[in-house]
């Protein structure tokens, strides 16, 4: 039988939903709003960058970013995010969640502003400067993943913990929506103030000099929500689970949570010492004990997040190409440069409004009723179904009369990504690992996801190119085409469904029960010898 829990942790587990829960959601969630805005706003401006800096006189089509430049602009922030997830995940377990939390936000503010600046107007300088700051912006964003998830899981009660963590992550949907809306407003304002002809009419004047300000304003806007939440992040107390179980300070944990919960909590120093001194609560990440107890869990969280992000990021970063292919965004030469930003922003906003945002909040509403395992399995299943439904009769969807139906089907894949594995892969790693390794393991899982995102972002650039070399984008070799790319993504989603069976169900249970930190010494040894963890999927 599990031992009696520390009073301070039990008080958090059984606490009724209070104002501090919503305060934590907003503080952590605004970080995620900024994360999503900064990561996805680049898809709004890549075509504009091509027109401004890679225009070719006399060419039939507007300038586009060369393959290596497009890959760098799209992927460099993801590389930074991967590094940040590993580094800040580890640092969050070493220094504490709160101390590291402010660092990530400062990096995001500074680098969002830096992304819109450049040392000169020469294109190599502009692109190099953009890539430099976007890498470090990604580094800061990466830290937000393990820290936000861990802080919210350690603050939440066990009854509604899933909904609280999901609500933090759901702010990502508003970040994507915000990116599209900022793109619409900025481009509409500039297009109205600086009218210019389409590329087909006049290739030179179709990109007015003021277009250079459009992309800079869009990428720099991400600094505003991050800066607004810095003060409140610094006011949050350290989580009681870190203070008690990792820093081993029972008095401070009890004092902090007494203020937050507004109840009297006893500091149980002897009980805490007994818990933390047991061998079962001392094993490290690279130990046989961790491998026996949590090895399959870590494989499950890393593999599902990896597979999910290959599909999710390739769809999200390159949705503008899919919309163009089916005619939802007009051919580039029939628009001026700023108008093209407006059309891409409008399409991104519509998809976010109709599928991305609702999907996240469906997860918030149902996760503590259906459970993590069921939602993740269902999400991967429907993503697979809709992806194959798009891919196999692809020619049918490209016909003019079927284009709206294509966009609806495409939106459903986003809906079930977000009411599915895109939310649950973020939630579960923050619940099932011990407090002393929780942030690290979440960072490892998230980094595996970003490795998948990099594959999706870089791979889809090349894979989605037309098989006819005369119809590819400038500088790209022939690819396998959008149809075959969608089939590959369907297979990846199916593999994600299979690996979901390695992920445990964590609904309604204490974090210490899930991680084994509440088990008596004898039980812990037995669990390590047998590989039993009592958290198998339901």
From TrEMBL:
<dbReference type="GO" id="GO:0006817">
    <property type="term" value="P:phosphate ion transport"/>
</dbReference>
<dbReference type="InterPro" id="IPR020846">
    <property type="entry name" value="MFS_dom"/>
</dbReference>
<dbReference type="GO" id="GO:0016020">
    <property type="term" value="C:membrane"/>
</dbReference>
<dbReference type="GO" id="GO:0015293">
    <property type="term" value="F:symporter activity"/>
</dbReference>
<dbReference type="InterPro" id="IPR036259">
    <property type="entry name" value="MFS_trans_sf"/>
</dbReference>
<dbReference type="InterPro" id="IPR005828">
    <property type="entry name" value="MFS_sugar_transport-like"/>
</dbReference>
<feature type="region of interest" description="Disordered">
    <location>
        <begin position="510"/>
        <end position="538"/>
    </location>
</feature>
<keyword id="KW-0813">Transport</keyword>
<feature type="transmembrane region" description="Helical">
    <location>
        <begin position="69"/>
        <end position="88"/>
    </location>
</feature>
<keyword id="KW-0812">Transmembrane</keyword>
<feature type="transmembrane region" description="Helical">
    <location>
        <begin position="213"/>
        <end position="232"/>
    </location>
</feature>
<keyword id="KW-1133">Transmembrane helix</keyword>
<feature type="transmembrane region" description="Helical">
    <location>
        <begin position="443"/>
        <end position="464"/>
    </location>
</feature>
<feature type="transmembrane region" description="Helical">
    <location>
        <begin position="373"/>
        <end position="392"/>
    </location>
</feature>
<feature type="transmembrane region" description="Helical">
    <location>
        <begin position="350"/>
        <end position="367"/>
    </location>
</feature>
<dbReference type="GO" id="GO:0005315">
    <property type="term" value="F:phosphate transmembrane transporter activity"/>
</dbReference>
<feature type="transmembrane region" description="Helical">
    <location>
        <begin position="404"/>
        <end position="423"/>
    </location>
</feature>
<dbReference type="Pfam" id="PF00083">
    <property type="entry name" value="Sugar_tr"/>
</dbReference>
<keyword id="KW-0769">Symport</keyword>
<comment type="similarity">
    <text>Belongs to the major facilitator superfamily. Phosphate:H(+) symporter (TC 2.A.1.9) family.</text>
</comment>
<feature type="transmembrane region" description="Helical">
    <location>
        <begin position="164"/>
        <end position="193"/>
    </location>
</feature>
<feature type="transmembrane region" description="Helical">
    <location>
        <begin position="100"/>
        <end position="119"/>
    </location>
</feature>
<feature type="transmembrane region" description="Helical">
    <location>
        <begin position="125"/>
        <end position="143"/>
    </location>
</feature>
<feature type="transmembrane region" description="Helical">
    <location>
        <begin position="485"/>
        <end position="503"/>
    </location>
</feature>
<feature type="domain" description="Major facilitator superfamily (MFS) profile">
    <location>
        <begin position="24"/>
        <end position="508"/>
    </location>
</feature>
<feature type="compositionally biased region" description="Polar residues">
    <location>
        <begin position="526"/>
        <end position="538"/>
    </location>
</feature>
<protein>
    <recommendedName>
        <fullName>Major facilitator superfamily (MFS) profile domain-containing protein</fullName>
    </recommendedName>
</protein>
<keyword id="KW-0592">Phosphate transport</keyword>
<feature type="transmembrane region" description="Helical">
    <location>
        <begin position="20"/>
        <end position="49"/>
    </location>
</feature>
<keyword id="KW-0472">Membrane</keyword>
<dbReference type="InterPro" id="IPR004738">
    <property type="entry name" value="Phos_permease"/>
</dbReference>
<feature type="compositionally biased region" description="Acidic residues">
    <location>
        <begin position="514"/>
        <end position="524"/>
    </location>
</feature>
């Amino acid at each position: 039988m599990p031992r009696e829990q520390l009073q301070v942790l039990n008080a958090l587990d059984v606490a009724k939903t209070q104002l501090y829960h919503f305060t934590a959601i907003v503080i952590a969630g605004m970080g995620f709003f900024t994360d999503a805005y900064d990561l996805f706003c680049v898809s709004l401006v890549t075509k504009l960058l091509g027109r401004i800096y890679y225009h070719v006189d006399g060419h039939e089509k507007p300038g586009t970013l060369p393959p290596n430049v497009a890959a760098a602009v799209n992927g460099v922030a993801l590389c930074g995010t991967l590094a940040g997830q590993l580094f800040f995940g580890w640092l969050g377990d070493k220094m504490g969640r709160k101390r590291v939390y402010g660092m990530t936000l400062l990096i995001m503010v500074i680098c969002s502003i830096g992304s819109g600046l450049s040392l000169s107007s020469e294109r190599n300088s502009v692109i190099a400067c953009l890539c430099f700051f976007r890498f470090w912006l990604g580094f800061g964003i990466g830290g937000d993943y393990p820290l936000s998830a861990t802080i919210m899981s350690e603050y939440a009660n066990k009854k509604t913990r899933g909904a609280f963590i999901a609500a933090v992550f759901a702010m990502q949907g508003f970040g994507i929506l915000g990116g599209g809306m900022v793109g619409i407003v900025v481009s509409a304002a500039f297009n109205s103030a600086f009218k210019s002809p389409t590329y087909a009419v006049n290739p030179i004047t179709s990109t007015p000099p003021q277009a250079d300000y459009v992309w800079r304003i869009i990428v720099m806007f991400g600094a505003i929500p991050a800066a607004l939440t810095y003060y409140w992040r610094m006011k949050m107390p350290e989580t009681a689970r870190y203070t008690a179980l990792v820093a081993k300070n029972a008095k401070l944990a009890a004092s902090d949570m007494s203020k937050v919960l507004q109840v009297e909590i006893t500091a149980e120093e002897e009980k805490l010492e007994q818990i933390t001194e047991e061998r079962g609560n001392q094993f490290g990440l690279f130990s046989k004990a961790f491998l026996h107890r949590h090895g399959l869990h870590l494989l499950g969280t890393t593999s599902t997040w990896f597979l999910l992000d290959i599909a999710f990021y390739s769809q999200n970063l390159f949705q503008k190409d899919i919309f163009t292919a089916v005619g939802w965004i007009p051919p580039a030469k029939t628009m001026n440069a700023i108008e093209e930003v407006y059309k891409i922003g409008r399409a991104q906003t519509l998809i976010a409004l109709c599928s991305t945002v609702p999907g996240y909040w469906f997860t918030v509403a149902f996760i503590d009723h259906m459970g993590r395992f069921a939602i993740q399995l269902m999400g991967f299943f429907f993503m697979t179904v809709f992806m194959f439904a798009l891919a196999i009769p692809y020619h049918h969807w490209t016909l003019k009369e079927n284009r709206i139906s294509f966009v609806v089907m495409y939106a459903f894949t986003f809906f079930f990504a977000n009411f599915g594995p895109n939310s649950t892969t973020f939630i579960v790693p923050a619940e099932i690992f011990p407090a002393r390794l929780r942030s690290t393991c979440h960072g490892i899982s998230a980094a595996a996801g970003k490795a998948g995102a990099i594959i999706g972002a870089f791979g889809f650039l090349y894979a989605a190119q037309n098989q006819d070399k005369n119809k590819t984008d400038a500088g790209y070799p022939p690819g396998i085409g959008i149809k075959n790319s969608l089939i590959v993504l369907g297979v990846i989603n199916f593999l994600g469904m299979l690996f979901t069976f390695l992920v445990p169900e964590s609904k309604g249970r204490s974090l210490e029960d899930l991680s084994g930190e509440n088990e008596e010494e004898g039980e812990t040894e037995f669990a390590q010898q047998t590989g039993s963890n009592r958290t198998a999927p339901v």
